[in-house]
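Please review this one:
***
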Amino acid sequence: MSRARRDRGSVTVELAAALPAVVLVLGMVLSAVAWARAGVVAADAAAMGARIAAVEGADAAVLAVLAVAPDATVTVDHGQQGGATVSVGIAAAVWLPVASATSTSLAGAGW
């Protein structure tokens, strides 16, 4: 039996064995990108919400954050001196931890 005849179909078997690993790695990379994106959106939304909460109040901040990230969980805490701390959590996928961010703004603080 020649070598070419013995090796016939080996590429198909190797591809069938390696393809699930490639798909798994691709899924992990895409999940990591989705989680990182959710973290960036949460940080931006928390910063925006803190600025709005310090000036316009908690209700306006919650509405603004939910306009940017409809699936977000938003918590607004008012400080003693009129500032506000806004925490935003966004779930990128069911199997990933929630990407969260917190931002604090002081009322009357200049740029």
Notes: The longest helix spans residues 10-56. The mean pLDDT is 87. The chain has one domain: 3-105. Residues 13 and 19 are 10 Å apart (CA to CA).
